[in-house]
Amino acid sequence: MSQHATVQKRLASRKEKRTYWTRRRREQLAGWLFIAPEVLGMLVLAVFPLLFSLGLSLTEWNLVGGLSAIHFVGLDNFAELFQDNRFLHALKNNIGFTAGTVPATMLIGVVLAAVIHKKLYFKDYFKAAFFVPYICSTVAVAAVWSALYHPSKGPLNQMLIHLGISEPPRWLVDTSWSLVAIMIIYIWQLLGYQIIIFLAGMSNIPDELYEAARIDGASGIQQFRRITLPLLGPTTFFLAITSTISSFKVFDMIKFLTDGGPNYSSTVIVYQIYEEGFQNFRMGYASAMSWILFLLIMLVTSVTWITQSRKVHY
């Protein structure tokens, strides 16, 4: 009897194991194992740095002092930010940079895309010609433009002098023109990307709509306003969001051309974060700046999302 009971117990145990690892559970386990590297990478490379920077923003930490040099200061870093004239100036420059570059790039991009799409021969050549600056190194682009912007020997100012402007702008060394000069380079470099995206959106608009408009006597400008622009709503929305985020993150061009100068006239928030964190080693203060920038981008993106999504035509 004892042997029979033992056999029955083993069979019951095996049955329990078989029923626990059902086919559905095995498939779920396989799914979790497949996404585990992605989840782990996101936790280590995104979530942890985000939470760590939030914690650092509430502390005072000299980077070279090690972890033992961290001191909790509460919201003092955020209070100091709004009394820091350099940060407020960088915030003002960042808002001006975004307000100047995003609408200008999108307006020029959609007009050039419409011309290339409808009226131009050698379309592929012009697509490549406009797109090349976008894939070039920002440092290389900035080096070329720094030569063009040279106050006395640059080709740009030489041309302006020949046109009769005796005192042309000093561009990168002028406090009134340094940020404008960088905005011009930024628009020029980003224009090709916007043209390609707009052309992709225009290629999806049915030709029958334009044929019907022509039969009704609509001019080219009327077709552009009444057909092209409304049906480019999703494309415009996508470019508005990505361009806004990108404009708030501009750094490398400013670092190479002006180092935020002259007299902080071209400094922006990301450059201030770099300066405070990796030159002054004030990691807590730099983290507080990062969170203000994060909240600003989230606010602008949310407003753009709410206002633009109501105008999207599918």
UniProtKB/TrEMBL annotation:
GO terms for cellular component: plasma membrane. SUPFAM superfamilies: MetI-like (SSF161098). CDD domains: TM_PBP2 (cd06261). PROSITE patterns: ABC_TM1 (PS50928). It is found in: Cell membrane. Its main location: membrane. Residues 91-304 form the ABC transmembrane type-1 domain. InterPro entries: ABC_transporter_permease, MetI-like, MetI-like_sf. Keywords: Cell membrane, Membrane, Transmembrane, Transmembrane helix, Transport. The chain crosses the membrane at residues 29-52, 95-116, 128-149, 177-200, 231-251, 288-307. One of its GO terms (biological process) is transmembrane transport. It is a multi-pass membrane protein. Belongs to the binding-protein-dependent transport system permease family. This is Sugar ABC transporter permease. It comes from Paenibacillus stellifer. The lineage of its organism: Bacteria, Bacillati, Bacillota, Bacilli, Bacillales.
